[in-house]
Write a structure and sequence with these properties.
It comes from Anisodus acutangulus. The protein is of the alpha+beta class.
Length: 683
């Protein structure tokens, strides 16, 4: 066993190794991330967004970005590493191997006379009679005298030259790199060591594990509380109108943590008066509805009032305390809305379908919050399914401006279809906007996305789709902007945080309110999109029996499409009973109003005649030709496209009647078949 002094000297080496093993690679990773040239997301450059200041990084914001808990921890650990290195360097002499030749400043193999001369020379320098320094005395006794004795004694010298030690061959020594106080505590070294082992290697990791698991058990995907997801799952109903989505959204458990202060009572009462018309509390039973509203949890009331005030663009009137709470609420909003969309698209029916109305309503609520447009502005009218909401998101547009241009422009699409000169004349001469303000409008119009969807549905390896087949749904979604960009942040000057565009693809049957397939699409991450498209294309080509050259060419084409602004969506659904289905493929953006795309898709499914059906019916006879109906030029049904915000918001459908209607719709629907549809984006 090594002596305790050597054990203590090795303890810093042990600690240094434990810290350095994870610290060095983690630091390298952080440096590489910080120094890597990331492509900057291009944001709106209109004057309204510039004045918002959220894209301008001041010196204080940069310092706050660096001053994170993670960075401070890394810096502290490197300080500890530096201290340990210095400590090891200072104590290195204590653990050096005993080398008498080196101590006397001689080369190995010199004669005894040379050794004596060296000893006398060092004695003059370090002998206690010549040098009163205690350190010199210690060095002379512990090193010089021992080295001289080892080299002048024939046996000791021979042992040293043979075995590297004056005492001859040494046995293998083991030690514990722990400090002395842990190994010797009033004779109870074993007990102290056991306590440290249990504490450092058992209890401490268990404590960290318990804390981590306790926190992880509270949160689901996207760092949303499980309590919130359960509440959303319970409150989302098939008949939930878009105008009622807000009532579900504010029930999030995260909003319960908002502080409720007595000082906020009066400002909240003023906010209530301001947003009262948006709360739909002015009906026949206004008093009862208002009393019911105030009986909710105070934090929930506060959150809804803050959000409604944001939709009316009244956030600049908040006090400092309300400003803090307001920003906290809006910071939580994107991930809570994403969680609500996922709960709305969770399969609920026996056929594995979810519900269309709450899914659309949640995306439309997200659009209004990002653009700070009141929900009442979405009421259909003036020929637009989005009401005036799509126009209110434009810079310098107000109700007064919209009224002035109403004779020539009733929808966002009307404004986009104009030439640059026609728009400039309309906005300057009729609406009264300045040249700079007209330029701001043009910048935002150029930034708005236009989408094209190409959807195909097929049974892999088969001519047509029969009932019970596993149907592959494939959609290529292409995004285009007038300014040529693919990845860009939306125009959202009133939303205080940076928010990227997310799109939701929904394959749905509007008649039965069923969503057959849903998927989230993000255009910001091109690398992930290339990986996904390559893997899907390669697997599909391999399944079709293509050779390596054909597979490589198909993957190359898919990668080129992704780089040009396309994203590939793939999913599988089970075909129901034989029949014809009129489906819609929706592509909805969660940040822009009026940029959603809807494609009509009529698909057929045939009776089961193939063997090995999955729960399908095997029928005899000849299979009919499987017709594919492309509907590129389908006329839009304006009434069907109107926003559901235009409905009477006091009307609550009876759930029993809704379920009965749902059963009838499911009975009428018979199947799903091969088909494809391609449609350009509609504003």
């Amino acid at each position: 066993m090594a002596d305790t002094g050597e054990n203590s000297a090795l303890f810093p080496v042990f600690i240094l190794s434990i810290i350095a093993l994870p610290l060095v690679p983690y630091t390298i990773l952080k440096i590489l991330r910080a120094t890597s040239k990331k492509e900057k997301s291009i944001h709106c450059e209109c004057s309204v967004c510039s004045r918002s200041g959220k894209y301008h990084e001041s010196i204080f914001r940069r310092i706050s970005k660096f001053s994170t808990c993670s960075n401070f921890t890394v810096l502290l650990l490197w300080v500890i590493v530096g201290f340990l290195v210095y400590s090891i360097k200072q104590s290195s002499r204590e653990i050096e191997a005993f080398d008498p030749f080196s101590i006397l400043g001689l080369e190995p193999g010199v004669s005894e006379s040379v050794i004596k001369k060296a000893y006398r020379r060092l004695s003059i320098q370090y002998h206690p009679d010549k040098n009163p320094d205690p350190a010199a005395n210690k060095y002379f006794v512990e090193y010089i005298s021992k080295a001289y004795q080892a080299l002048t004694d024939p046996v000791s010298r021979e042992n040293f030259e043979k075995y590297g030690h004056p005492d001859g061959r040494q046995g293998f020594q083991m030690g514990i790199a722990l400090p002395q106080f842990m190994l010797d505590f009033n004779g109870a070294s074993s007990g102290i060591l056991l306590i440290w082992i249990l504490g450092g290697f058992v209890l401490l990791p268990m404590a960290f594990g318990v804390v981590y698991l306790s926190r992880a058990s509270k949160y689901g995907g996207s760092y949303i509380r499980r309590e919130t997801l359960a509440t959303y799952f319970e409150l989302v109903k098939p008949s939930l109108a878009p105008s009622k989505i807000m009532d579900v959204f504010i029930k999030a458990a995260e909003f319960m943590d908002i502080p409720v202060r007595r000082a906020d009572d009066e400002p909240l009462q003023e906010l209530f008066k301001l947003v009262k018309s948006e709360l739909n509390l002015d009906g026949k039973n206004a008093r009862q509805e208002q009393a019911k509203f105030w009986k909710q949890h105070p934090a929930i009331v506060k959150a809804e009032l803050l959000i409604q005030a944001h939709l009316l663009r009244k956030a600049d009137t908040f006090s400092s305390n309300l400003q803090q709470d307001y920003k906290h609420v809006l910071q939580l909003t994107p991930r809570l809305l994403e969680g609500l969309i996922k709960m709305a698209t969770v399969p609920r029916t026996a056929k594995g379908h979810s519900w269309l109305r709450p899914a659309i309503g949640t995306v439309e609520l997200s659009q209004c919050i990002i653009q700070a447009v009141p929900l009442s502005a979405r009421k259909a009218g003036s020929g637009s399914s989005d009401g005036v909401a799509s126009l209110l998101q434009l810079p310098h547009f107000s109700d007064a401006v919209i009224t002035k241009i109403a004779k020539k422009v009733r929808t966002l699409q009307n404004l986009q279809d104009m030439t640059l000169q026609e728009r400039a004349e309309l906005l300057s001469d009729v609406a009264g906007l300045s040249a700079a303000e007209v330029q701001d409008v043009e910048k935002v119009l150029e930034l708005m996305p236009r989408a094209t969807i190409e959807v195909t549905c097929e049974t892999e390896g088969e001519e047509g789709i029969q009932e019970g087949d596993i149907v592959t749904v494939q959609a290529w979604v292409a995004l285009r902007r007038a300014n040529g960009l693919i990845k860009a942040l939306p125009h959202a000057p009133y939303y205080p945080f940076s928010k990227g565009e997310n799109f939701w693809f929904l394959l749905a049957d509007a008649n039965s309110n069923d969503v057959w397939f849903s998927e989230s699409i993000k255009f910001m991450d091109e690398a992930a999109a290339i990986t996904t498209a390559s893997a899907i294309t390669e697997a599909k080509m391999e399944a079709s029996g293509a050779n390596m050259e054909e597979i490589a060419a198909a993957v190359k084409d898919a990668v080129a499409k992704v780089k040009s602004g396309c994203r590939l969506v793939l999913g599988k659904i089970q075909a129901p009973q034989a029949g014809t289905y009129n489906l819609n493929s929706h592509l909805m953006c969660d940040t822009w109003i009026g940029c959603d795309t809807k494609t009509n898709l009529k698909l057929k499914i045939l009776k089961r005649i193939r063997a090995g059906s999955r729960g399908g019916h095997v029928a005899e006879g000849v299979q009919e030709e499987n017709d594919v109906e492309d509907e590129d030029d389908i006329e839009e049904d304006e009434e069907g496209d109107q926003s559901e915000y235009s409905e009477d918001e006091d009307e609550d459908e009876d759930e029993d009647e809704d379920d009965e209607a749902d059963k009838k719709n499911n009975t009428n629907r018979k199947g799903f078949a091969n088909g494809s549809a391609r449609r350009k984006g509609r504003k």
